[in-house]
Request: fold
Amino acid sequence: MPRPRKRRRVCELPETILFKPAGKPITESELVVITIDEYEVIRLIDLEGLNQEECAERMEVARSTIQRMYEEVKRKLADSIVNGKAFKIEGGDYKLCEFDKDACTTPCCMEKNRNRAGLGRGAGRGAGRGNKNGL
Reply:
């Protein structure tokens, strides 16, 4: 009996889940399914520029798993683009990272926390515009 698959950590879900060739109704397109964990691999490696080892660390799986997933998702995307097929992002063995702004210490959340600096109204520890005494 094979080992159960380890759930992969995913930092964020895709905003758009369905892509189709222009001018072709979705009902006439073959559909390629990309899992959410495969989407996360392509996002981390190709968009964020991580290497496979760093991607594996973030997703809490072995590098060989990332290598296998990366090859599979590239094959699926190539099939979709070259053969004019629609693709949908859904399913997979994943666990969504609980983004607790202050408590989460996973690399993806720490990166999001660092990038949030200066957005909106913060704790206000500096001598901002309304602080005439500089306190």
In short: The longest strand covers residues 31-34. The helical segments are 36-47, 52-59, 63-82, 107-115. Residues 8-115 form one domain.
